[in-house]
Design brief:
This protein is mainly alpha-helical. About 65% of the residues lie in helices and about 5% in strands. The protein binds one DNA strand through helix 5, helix 7, helix 9, helix 11 and helix 13.
DNA sequence: CTAGGGTTAG
């Protein structure tokens, strides 16, 4: 304890008599220890239980002084602790995140002669039960409250409702609520948050509307719950009404409410409105920043999310574990390895709690950046894992082409008695399809229903179609679709169409495209695949016709786009990019690259290019694909030994795939490319996908 | 001495 304050600066030692002035009773260790000493010296501490209580209360007010408060409570000289003294210390335990200590103190209190639990005690104990999800203890405390006649207390009742809500027993909470004669806003808030916590968002909105109808008073807390629920169900209308009310009543200073509104707007897709509220806040705490960042991440505006994260750091607000979840998932989407790695080291340096959610985000981030070893390391460093965590790693293994290891992980997961979900099986089946493990795939698909009672969804059927189709069993894949118990979706037909492209199957390809068009959600990629199928078997006229059809229907080709990160900044390249400051150098580098790999045997594959131009133009066009520009940029900017990592929005085309293999050899570089559904690790002239993608 | 609220992964 610090005692470096000169004696002259001390408050005058209290003589026996009136209680010491309240002014110095701030939670400042210097004043407190000095005052404590003075009270002992004057004998006042033992003489006046009030002084003791004040001192204890002051110490308990600050979490850093909690050990001091405890020793004050435990060690003499002091009067026997009264009921309020117990209550103060219990609340301090709860506040400091030690609900179990609060419970222990309650038990001790039951046997103490100097104190007897009152309504304050019971409310606090119930809150501890909420925090610990201790339903049985909570019920016991309720029985105690009934015996002691404390059930009429509004604080006891609302704490009890919260306890049941936290323990996922909403109906018990509702029974209590209904049993109360005159419910005020506090009780309404209790039941509303009970619904909110358990995901009954419609009920939250309904109850609020009911309050409005009968003209009941509501407050800020009510509105926070209502707005949060609006965000979850996408009820922008009610949410906007609340925003208007907040504006009108001048509640803009309420940070929690503003944060809830930001979250609501973001979840309803109104990022601009969310940002305007955020910018208008007088003070933004870590939760407000986190809400805005997660808004951008969830809206798939990951670059904005990262930009806001760096603004947050400039503003001097320390991120917490929740912030980092959103930041990491933005990094995962962008393939921003440097930024994410920095986040990981920050987490370690600041010892942020590696919760299941944060750990899972970390595993997912590394896996989505193609760093599967680091993903495994992160996985192993986690103290507690759940089904999501295992699933993230299994999926990561699958997309990185390590199907066998993914399946081994799945069996370890089962050994660890972690229940797989339907998503886990998507990962398992993806592992099989990316690694061409046909028999295993069929087996797991059957076992999913038989052994785990999980009904296959469209995604699973899609995986099987993909698995069979890519393995060359295109007819069987087609038959599989025809006998499926669900209506085949575009996704499923699209999987079939891509395998037709791999195996040059015109007939089934045509059928698949027909089905996709009839379902009315065709992409440019579907037409391009079909056109490529025709081109690959020499049906040039049909290929041209499909392209024309696409044009006539006004379907724009999705521009290819590649991302590459450099010194923590994510650069974006488009095919035929004309918007980069170092364009000339980049195109020069591309030319040099193409010349060098041509000497190593590269032959440009121009079969898939628009047909109305001459051969040279086709070659140039292919050489300006976004990933070639990005790789050239990487070669220019990165250290000679550094791995080039990029991620792109479409699938890698055949030409870029063979070119990249040769680049990895000629330039002696590892290149990792993430396309829209898997990874390619290029090294020494070969690719981890074994040309099977 | 008293409640209740906002941000989070596959």
């Amino acid at each position: 304890m610090a005692t470096a304050v000169p004696t002259a600066a001390l408050p005058t030692p209290a003589r026996a008599g009136p209680a010491p002035p309240r002014a110095p009773l701030r939670a400042d260790p210097r004043y407190l220890t000095q005052l404590h000493a003075a009270l002992i010296k004057s004998g006042e501490l033992t003489a006046s239980p009030k002084s003791f209580h004040s001192l204890l209360e002051a110490a308990a007010a600050s979490p850093t002084l909690l050990p001091y408060a405890v020793s004050l409570f435990r060690l003499g000289p002091r009067p026997p602790p009264s009921t309020p003294c117990y209550n103060v210390l219990m609340r301090a335990f709860l506040h400091a995140g030690h609900p179990e200590d609060a419970l222990h103190l309650f038990v001790e209190m039951l046997g103490a002669a100097s104190a007897c639990p009152d309504q304050h005690t019971v409310a606090c104990v119930l809150k501890s039960c909420s925090r610990m999800c201790a339903l049985d203890v909570g019920r016991g405390v309720q029985a105690y409250a009934i015996k002691r006649g404390l059930m009429a207390d509004r604080f006891v009742l609302s704490s009890l409702i919260h306890m049941y809500a936290s323990c996922r027993d909403v109906s018990a909470a509702r029974l209590l609520f209904d049993a109360v004669e005159e419910n005020g806003v506090v009780m309404w808030n209790a039941i509303i948050t009970a619904y909110l916590k358990n995901g009954y968002w419609m009920e939250v909105v309904e109850m609020f509307k009911g309050m409005l109808e009968v003209g009941l008073a509501f407050d800020e807390v009510t509105l926070v719950s209502v707005v949060t629920a609006c965000g979850r169900i996408g009820d922008a209308k009610l949410g906007t009404w609340v925003a208007g009310y907040v504006d009108e009543k001048g509640l803009v200073r309420s940070r929690n409410l503003m944060t809830a509104l930001i979250d609501m707007y973001a979840k309803c897709g109104e990022l601009g409105k969310a940002r305007r509220l955020f910018d208008g806040m007088q003070s933004r705490d870590v939760v407000a920043w986190s809400a805005m960042i997660s808004g951008y991440t969830q809206a798939d505006q990951c670059r904005e999310a990262l930009a806001l994260f760096s603004e947050m750091q400039l503003a001097g607000v320390e991120p917490n574990n929740v912030t980092m979840v959103s930041v990491l998932s933005a990094c995962a989407v962008l393939g921003a390895l440097e930024t994410g790695t920095w986040v990981h080291s920050y987490i370690r340096r600041k010892r942020l709690p590696l919760t299941i959610i944060l750990g899972t985000a970390l595993v997912d981030f590394y896996a989505k950046c193609g760093c599967i070893d680091e993903a495994v390391e992160a996985f192993e460093s986690m103290p507690v894992k759940n089904s999501w965590t295992w699933t993230a790693l299994i999926k990561g293994m699958a997309t990185n082409g390590r199907g066998r290891e993914a399946l081994e992980l799945f069996s370890s997961m089962r050994k660890a008695s972690v229940e797989p979900t339907y998503v886990t099986f998507i990962g398992v089946l993806m592992a099989c399809s990316h690694s061409c493990l046909v028999e295993e795939g069929r087996r797991h698909f059957d076992s999913m229903t038989q052994d785990y009672g999980i009904k296959p969804r469209a995604e699973h059927y899609g995986c099987i179609v993909d698995l069979l189709g890519r393995a060359g069993l295109v007819d069987e894949a087609y038959q599989f679709i025809r006998t499926m118990p669900i209506e085949p979706s575009t996704v499923i037909w699209r999987a079939l169409l891509s395998s037709c492209a791999v195996h040059k199957n015109v007939e089934i390809g045509e059928e698949a495209l027909k089905q996709i068009i009839s379902l009315n959600s065709h992409h440019s990629g579907d037409y391009i695949l079909m056109s490529n199928i025709y081109a690959s078997v020499g049906q040039w006229k049909d290929a041209a016709m499909i392209r024309k059809e696409m044009k006539d229907r006004g379907i724009e080709k999705t521009p290819g786009c590649s991302l590459i990160e450099l010194d923590g900044v994510v650069f974006e390249f488009f095919a035929e990019d004309s918007d980069h400051p170092q364009l000339r150098e980049i195109y020069q580098k591309v030319e040099e690259m193409i010349d060098r790999i041509k000497m190593a045997g590269y032959i440009p594959n121009t079969a898939d290019v628009r047909l109305e131009v001459d051969e040279h133009e086709k070659e140039v066009s292919v050489s300006h694909h976004s990933e070639k520009l990005a790789i050239a940029f990487g070669l220019m900017k990165l250290d000679p030994g550094a791995t080039i990592r990029l991620s792109k929005n479409l699938r890698v085309c055949t030409d870029c795939h063979s070119a990249t293999k040769l680049i990895s050899k000629v330039y002696n570089r590892e290149i990792v490319v993430r396309d829209w559904n898997r990874f390619h690790h290029f090294k020494d002239g070969t690719c981890s996908c074994n040309d099977y993608w």
